[in-house]
Amino acid sequence: NRRTAARNIGYQTVPCVIRNFAGEDDAELAMIQDNMNSRELLPSERGWGYRREMEIRRRRAGRPATFSAQNGRNYHENGPIENWSPNRTNFRTAERIGQEKNVSKNSIHRYIRLTYLIDPLLRLVDEKKLGLGIGEQLSYLGQRSQETVYHFCYASEKPHPLKDAQAKMLREIEADPD
Question: What is the DSSP letter of 54?
């Protein structure tokens, strides 16, 4: 990407390293990791990076090849598996990513939750007009509820920004409307 950008602005030669990867997933993981380490990221960029990395790693982690309807267990060619990981550890994917990046698994999940916000709310998080905690709580609301919150609380002539407790209450109300 950097080589192409340099070429587009007129550079004839650009120092670069060309890496060969075994597959598309390896190349995408390298790109995500490079982007996560190279600069300060917006919360949305961090969330999408973590989300995509989790998707790739879960897919590659030896998830079950088949499912036995007879006994409801997952099987691999070597027999039944419950929560198998390629390096025989008990770590889940978010814990593993967290260890590598020196971030808690809860932070990783919090950033990933932001990717479930509608665009206007996610933009507010990126602009620091909406806190991460409030954004996380609102991400559990359905799209229509998020749109209502956005229009009433942030896009109206007289905005009414939510507090943490209010966002949490909205989440609880939507989860259990009775």
Answer: H
Determine contact, residues 94/105, Cβ cutoff 8 Å.
yes
Rounded distance, CA 99 to CA 116, Å?
24
Give the CA angle between residues 105, 108, 110 to the nearest 5°.
110
Whole-number average pLDDT of the chain: 81
pTM of the model: 0.70
When pLDDT is averaged across residues 88-94 and rounded to a whole number, the result is 64
Picking from 113, 116, 101, 109, the residue whose alpha carbon sits closest to that of residue 146 is 116
The CA-atom distances, in angstroms, between 29 and each of 18, 21, 90, 97, 163 are: 15, 10, 22, 12, 36
Q: Is the pLDDT of residue 21 over 90?
A: no
Size of the chain, expressed as the number of residues it contains: 178
Place of tokens 């998080």: 125
CA-wise closest residue to 138 among 127, 129, 147: 147
Q: Report how far residue 72's alpha carbon sits from residue 88's, in angstroms, rounded to the nearest whole number.
A: 23
